[in-house]
């Protein structure tokens, strides 16, 4: 069984300094939170990926603060050990640092999260600084930032060109100096991610960014194969739960229609 000590920001920082990998998994509901918390994962993350995975949207842009609050409250009730973090959805932090603080404050006060994540580089430095100064822990997010999907023209690797790579290096340093406690690096070349990781004093969490990061994050539905037809290069399936659920549901449908369920021995009084 994993240790039951609560994961805090100093614990995550100590893991980086000791060279221990940090594990982060997205989570959107109470039963999943209980299972993942028991797994020993360090961070349970209520990501705006719930737009794609739970709400059926094409991308994350339609996700609202109320959506995140709703799901984060459920995850909070199932979490005892892991650090709980939530995404700040599109346009909940970009308008002004003051509005970002008000929205982040709701996530901490109403949902009980312990940190928030925001996307973007140097332009987000005033937001990060404002939140951190007010006592809100912030994780940054560089590389492919899904809230800017229309600018990128799809889910494309970032940082291949020298100018892009230099900007990512500068952005990472700027976010660290603004007070971010960690950074997600998404879909950037592995050598660049390793270089940025070694240059920073704060942890990096990779997704499609190679083994040189201080930790890794995966989306719940990708990790457990809940969409059997979806295969992503940066994800590894550890179960085929989607196939199991679908097959079990089909057997239940067949048993009801054939009369096998409920059997005579299962009738009530």
Describe this structure in words.
α5 links the parallel β3 and β4 (115-117). By secondary structure, this protein is of the alpha/beta class. Strands 1-2-3-4-5-6-7-8 form an eight-stranded parallel barrel, surrounded by seven helices. It has eleven helices and eight strands. The chain has two domains: 9-238, TIM Barrel; 241-269, no CATH class. The radius of gyration is 20 Å and the shape is globular.
- Structural class of the secondary elements? alpha/beta
* CATH architecture identity of the largest domain: Alpha-Beta Barrel
Low-confidence stretches are none
* Main sheet properties: 8 strands, parallel, barrel
Can you count the helices?
11
Strand order of the largest sheet: 1-2-3-4-5-6-7-8
N-to-C span: 43 Å
Summarize the structure.
The chain is 42% helix and 13% strand.
Features:
single chain; alpha/beta; TIM Barrel; eight-stranded parallel barrel; 11 helices; globular
